[in-house]
Amino acid sequence: MRHTKYVFIIAFVFLAGVTSASEQKCAVNLQLRWFHQFQFAGYYAAKELGYYDEAGMDVNIIEGGLDTDVMKEVVSGKAEYGVQTPSIVVDRSEGNPVVVLAAIFQHSPVALIVNSKSGIENPSQLAGRKIMLGEKNVEIRAMLISEGVLDKIKILPFTGKYDEILEGSIDGATGYVTDISYVKDQNEGSFSYLRPITYGIDFYGDCLFTTEKEIKKDLERVTAFREASLKGWKYAMANPDEIIGLIQSKYDSTLKKEDLLYEYSQMKKLMYPDIVEIGHMNQGRWMHIVGTFQNLGVIRPDFKLDGFLYSDHLNNKWKFERSALLAISLTLLSGIIFILINYVKEKRKEQREEIRHTKELKASEAKFRNIIEFGADGILMGSSEGYIIEANEMSCEIIGKKREDLVGKYVSAIPFTEESLERAPLRFDLLREGKTVVTERDIKRPDGSIVNIEMKTKMMADGNLQSIFRDITEKKENEKKLKIFNKILEQRIEERTKQLQNANNDLESFSYSVSHDLRAPLRHISGFSDITRKNLSSGSLDKASESLRKVEEATEKMEKLIDDLLKLSRTGRMELNIIELDMNRIINELRNEFQQSHEYKKVEWKIQHLPSVPADRALMTVVWENLIDNALKYSSKNDDPKIEIGCDVSADRYEFYIKDNGVGFDPEYTNKLFGVFQRLHLDKEFHGTGIGLATVKRIIDRHGGSVRAEAEVERGATFYFTLPKLQGEK
Amino acid sequence: MKSKFILLVEDDQNDVELTLRALKHGYEGNITVVNDGAEGLDFLFRKGKYADRGPEDPGFIILDKKMPKMDGIELLTAVKKDEILKNIPVIMFSSSNYEKDITDSYKAGVNAYVVKPINIDEYYKAVREIGHFWGEMNEAPSTEHRP
């Protein structure tokens, strides 16, 4: 019997122990969205330092991974809390009753990672390319939609294999700017980022959230969990080395210390732990995020934010759940009011006296207040702790916020852009010396518009700061316009000068030709007409006929010269109309034309398939016409003429060539080949004006390419010309 | 020195014909025609197919300015740089009345620059005057007195 009694007692004690333990420590699951790393440092700290313990919780931190669906885990109740991006507001709009507790990152670390050698500098350049994009990654989608390229990109499921970007099998993938793991073992600068914030999508980063069910069940527990977590975050950001050691030892992270430190340093830039209270959220900012989603059609237009923010539920608690407490409070309050009224009556007497004395002073103060209140500049007063004490009407107008959203708030309520804060930080060292500090910054208003401001700040005797600022957006805009305008003007002048120079050169060529090349046929006409006359008078008709033929030839030559000169001058002046040009078509058309002529019937053509290139159709036709004409002409004395046309493509250019098996030329004189009126053959051997190749050179010059030729005497010639590839052409 | 011959360097066959016609009436010496500057150079310096030509050098040279491969000024420069050949008078006979062509020729040491007239009578006259002046009135130093 004694035995049984003991057993009973032991069992009772054991059971009681278990019950009391479960009452003190309730088990809670926190689902992370990624592998253990510094991204979740605050929660590890809160657990390790016993903050959760103190709050009566035994928190189990569950590691995430590639396939983790945090939303599902939390909504299904498997985990009470989760860490996720602001995409949770989209989930809420779709009927998932989730509540955001805190925004850990004030700005999003999400970016699209691209190979820095790819030349991709903005989202629009992604058109026609392949990227890896997680299904839940709404911010990158928002950026791509807002830049109008989403439907032009091939989206592949996210695999986390960033190597493929460097190998070139994909062009980009989503990632965190804080994460170094994919940069590992790569040269610094292998990757570059496209950040949604650059394109007006400025979201919070990681958020801590729970469900409405959890809040209804135990709001106190939620509050305690939130506070313990944020306390943990505060500690983690102040003691990164300690938490990094913890992540490595207790959470089996394979990341190196320097990787985690890098992550910490990047996170600091997104959290501002020294300025903004960790976890801080602003309803306006969430409305902006929702607005962005609504604009992109991700969230339905009538969605309301009510109940999504943790603070919404705090109000409810005081209004409804504590009605009993309210009753007690009311009783107490009426007592206090009674005492107060008496006190006020006494006080009023004194004040009436005081008021009389200060009336004048107040009138004067009111006058100044008016000046400040309705001044043309924004005027802000800030406390030394960083809170806004005063904001005049113009401040509110410039910043785009109501006075109650500024006064009493922390200075981060002024939505300076991250970039301008970094570019123009407030120089406290100068302020402390009593100097006026002038900074130019940008404000991103709640409606999304950006205002450039010039701000003069001075520290008052009591340590408070006074800033006077004005909207200089228009001025900046004008400066920018002026700069662009100047640049365009310079470019135009340069272009015109070049055109003028070419025109001058044309004129020079013309005057030279008039003084030289056009005179020769005239002289021959005169000379052989005279000879004809003499032949006729002496009765030698055959000789007269021969001389007349020379007169005819001279006129033909003259006509050809005039034609060619006009063509040359036109090629210099004609506006380039660059299109995707099919070279095969041009060659075929020209070949058909040349083949009409009987003398070229026996030519053997060997034509490769040619690429399409960006060029002017009319001018490129002139180029090929001249080159083919040359090749045919100089191989016409060969019994077995052959013409070969082809193209070599390299990384940055196309090199076309035309090869013949004609008489060729002495390579010693190659330098004269492309000059106006320069010829390497006697007219009696091959007719020509010496303008054709000069025309070819000018056209290719205008396309940004170059010309060259290779030949040997009696062993044929090859003419080459290059055309540059346009940027981004593959 | 009537035995001395003229070297005519001219690529244009029509001009060769007209020049020869003109000279027939005023000049009795022989005329050798070469078709461009490069051939002229071979002739004067006894190279290529002219390696074995006789010892005599032309009494004067009528040189066209614009020719394929090597033009008149290049040939002129080569001649005037040569210690022996530089004494042979060179007359540039060109279609061009372009200022630069004329000054370039004189800078290179031409003895006279004559623009080819368009009118055929004037052309004949110009050629005959060249032949008369340089062939008969103005004798070049004899090659026998070479230094």
Key descriptive features of the protein:
heterodimer, A: 730 residues, alpha+beta, D-Maltodextrin-Binding Protein, domain 2, 5 domains, five-stranded mixed sheet, 22 strands, elongated, B: 147 residues, alpha/beta, Rossmann fold, five-stranded parallel sheet, 5 strands, globular
SSE topology sketch:
The complex is a heterodimer of chains A (about 725) and B (about 150).
Chain A: H1 2-24, E1 26-31, H2 41-48, H3 51-54, E2 57-62, H4 70-75, E3 81-84, H5 88-93, E4 98-103, E5 110-115, E6 130-132, H6 138-146, E7 154-156, H7 163-167, E8 172-176, E9 191-194, E10 207-211, H8 212-217, H9 219-238, H10 240-250, H11 257-271, H12 283-295, H13 310-321, H14 323-373, E11 378-382, E12 388-391, H15 393-399, H16 418-423, H17 428-432, E13 437-444, E14 450-459, E15 465-471, H18 473-515, H19 519-537, H20 541-573, E16 578-582, H21 583-596, E17 604-607, E18 612-616, H22 617-634, E19 642-649, E20 653-660, H23 692-702, E21 707-711, E22 717-724
Parallel strand pairs in A: 1-2, 1-3, 6-7, 6-8, 17-19
Antiparallel strand pairs in A: 3-10, 4-10, 5-8, 5-9, 11-12, 11-15, 13-14, 14-15, 16-18, 19-20, 20-22, 21-22
Chain B: E1 6-9, H1 13-24, E2 31-34, H2 37-44, E3 60-63, H3 72-81, E4 90-94, H4 99-107, E5 112-115, H5 120-137
Parallel strand pairs in B: 1-2, 1-3, 3-4, 4-5
